[in-house]
């Protein structure tokens, strides 16, 4: 799968009526307050071409062809990353991942346009409104008729294949994400915790992620995890719902 500046596909697969395509567009070196990054832009379509997004790959060093490459798969969060919201740990996790790949190159931060665990920004704000009435993040989604999580990760598989990365060390607290990526064929050799200490406004959200969504929060929150539940709606490479068993 060769990258191309003219948008030729750098990763595509057709299974029956389903089609997934991830196209490399361009790469640029961008200086930031935390250092310089290679930024690779892609266009991704799935769900038979009905759904499109523009994932971005933020890189330090030369991970091409590498094994055990540190990777953070990060979903956009307008409320924390732009507005500075204190309700979640997303912006802090992004900065933590940035710092890690700067200090341990080569490394990759894949940034996906999947606001609110894939439900979109407008639905996320609607869920926030219900949380103000006392629902947690899981029950707020369900009250809106939405899944707990509907993120799609075939672009991650295709981007890492485009770079020739053979195995990864995944920065995540979410064992379900590891299971989904492995189902897509990625080799995850290690989980790197991405913990942010809970604060006044984020404690309820982080506790819910641990108790109801299987996240491994360690000392970030005090409560012990309860038995897992959830209408998780990750997607496999055929565009079908995928519900992996929790990892131990």
TrEMBL record:
Catalysed reactions, as listed in the record: GTP + 4 H2O = 2,5-diamino-6-hydroxy-4-(5-phosphoribosylamino)-pyrimidine + formate + 2 phosphate + 3 H(+)
Keyword Hydrolase annotated: yes
Domain (GTP cyclohydrolase II) ranges: 26-193
EC number annotated for this UniProt entry: 3.5.4.25
Family annotation (CDD domains): GTP_cyclohydro2
One example GO MF annotation: metal ion binding
Pfam family membership, one: GTP_cyclohydro2
Protein name: GTP cyclohydrolase II
Organism annotation: Elliptochloris bilobata
